[in-house]
Amino acid sequence: MNEIILEVTNNIIERSKTSREIYLNRVKEASNKGVNRSKVGCSNLAHTIAPMNEQEKELMSDKVTPNIAIVTAYNDMLSAHEPFSVYPSLIKRTLLNEGATAQVASGVPAMCDGVTQGYEGMELSLFSRDNIAMGTAIGLSHNVYDGAIYLGVCDKIVPGLLIGALSFGHLPAIFMPAGPMPSGISNKEKALVRQEFAQGKVDEKALFKVEAASYHSSGTCTFYGTANSNQMLLEMMGLQLPNSSFVNANTQLRDELTQEASKTLLNLTEYKNNFTPIADIIDERSFVNAIVGLMATGGSTNHTIHLIAMARAAGIIINWDDFNMISSVTPLLCRLYPNGSADVNHFRDAGGMSVVISELINAGLVHEDVNTIVGRGLKNYIVEPTLKENKLVFNKGAIISRDKDIVSSVEAPFSNEGGITLLKGNIGRSIIKTSALKDEHLYIKAPAMVFSTQDELKNAFKEGLLNKDFVAVVKFQGPKSNGMPELHGLLPSLGVLQDKGFKVAIVTDGRMSGASGKVPSAIHLVNEAAKGGAIALIEDGDMICLDVKKGTLNIEIPAEEKIRRTIKKVDLSANHYNYGRNLFSSVRDNISSAEEGATIFDIIGKERN
């Protein structure tokens, strides 16, 4: 094993000792022998089975065979989740043939950041994660289930489902993806037209035509943003069938994988004498493997928030220093949009997760001896699902990339370090995605231009005020201010300026999209402006120095000048009502910092500062 990976793992174990022990003791306390519905009364059980057919009722009444919960994030507005409409019936039929039953225990919200991006609804996006976790817990609280199947793909949905699943750590769990849509128009062409629209070179009709050719059918969007990073993480953590994430939606192979996952979950219940609850799969090593996967594939920066929140649900405490240390020794193995031109379908065809996991195991960068839903050992994930005579088989997976422009090797990586770096300095701590940055953009020193909203920056661009070197400081965008919406809509304008030869960058306490790329962006800054962070003191003209290689972010003003300044109050009230935002005031009041997972949930056994 790589020494740094071992050091990070041991640091996390030591840091988490007390909270992890409390979590595991609570899981043990919640565990029952036999099926869970045998503990409920006759009236309770009658309510449980009332809508079932006679065969299901007979099985349920015997109180011997397992009953499986389905927690679904289905809606037919979200392309990635539309395929889930048929999953419950397929799962139920599959399990019934195996002598077990299943019920939809809960439906949780699933919002599309692609729809809300740049608009008021985006201010609920991050908050929805903890709401999903609570919705998951509400469904499972009926306590008549012996395992759970989780149906979710996109940004906040999978993290929310996993937080909820870990709160029921005594139950076996499996996650099922829907799969990506087929490839549409190239990501490079889409990005180009977006920039042309920002400059007024093409009209809205032309832009829409390109967008519709990119997002064109059911299935997950094909760029490597947060949704597809979620799927990668689930495989790295052993919670999803091997190399199954990027099999296309609405295909026979996808249906076969759904049936196989249902039977795999059943085999983890006590019914099969192979009882393996999720708490026996997820540990500190699981999260280290997940972070390594994130760095090796150039995944979404959103997971520097979500992984922290997910880990805390299991009593495990990770921080940005862990991410940074892992990034320093993890080579970048993948070139996927926005870090390249390929999409996840091309990634799959190049060998996908099988190649990535094989490379990481051979380099000693991941813990191979971990538990997974398909047995002990991450080597079980070096396989490739396919159909043989209309039946699912897992063949030996590729260990050498079929396209080295998309998936490389540890010996010849695209970069010697991972795709995300921690920046520290007198403004605070922040995260920057480096996997898509050119060398000339790793160092930016330029005067600040300060904005309090996205629209202020967009309007300045339209008015021609930004044709110069500058660092856009976009403050009061953190979780306590307005829910930390993604600021992805700023990138076409800044990309245009960058292409003109200007040195530009972003510093913000907000987030960027998981699809963000070529503009250097110091994001998730803590402390945020609403909590009195130094970003709130920055004024127009202050010299900002962003140095990725040194890992620093500083404002170059005399200390006495910084002390003299007072925070100029910004009226945020307009962000706290309409579009449902008023319903989340208690979340804004109680949410933790980005480095603490931007969550309303306390660490197990600990009080938040």
Automatic annotation (TrEMBL):
Protein name, as recorded: Phosphogluconate dehydratase
Dihydroxy-acid/6-phosphogluconate dehydratase C-terminal domain ranges (all copies): 405-598
The record's free-text note on cofactor binding: Binds 1 [4Fe-4S] cluster.
The entry's keywords: 4Fe-4S, Carbohydrate metabolism, Gluconate utilization, Iron, Iron-sulfur, Lyase, Metal-binding
Lineage: Bacteria, Pseudomonadati, Campylobacterota, Epsilonproteobacteria, Campylobacterales
Alphabetized Gene3D superfamilies for the sequence: IlvD/EDD C-terminal domain-like
Any one Gene Ontology cellular component term annotated for this protein: cytosol
One Pfam family of this chain: ILVD_EDD_N
Residues given in the record as [4Fe-4S] cluster binding sites: C154, C221
Record InterPro entries: 6-phosphgluc_deHydtase, Dihydro-acid_dehy_C, DiOHA_6PGluconate_deHydtase_CS, ILV_EDD_C, ILV_EDD_N, IlvD/EDD_N
GO molecular function: 4 iron, 4 sulfur cluster binding; metal ion binding; phosphogluconate dehydratase activity
Signal peptide: none
PROSITE patterns from the UniProt entry: ILVD_EDD_1, ILVD_EDD_2
Family membership noted in the UniProt record: Belongs to the IlvD/Edd family.
Pathway linked to the protein: Carbohydrate metabolism; Entner-Doudoroff pathway
Source organism superkingdom: Bacteria
Function: Catalyzes the dehydration of 6-phospho-D-gluconate to 2-dehydro-3-deoxy-6-phospho-D-gluconate.
EC number: 4.2.1.12
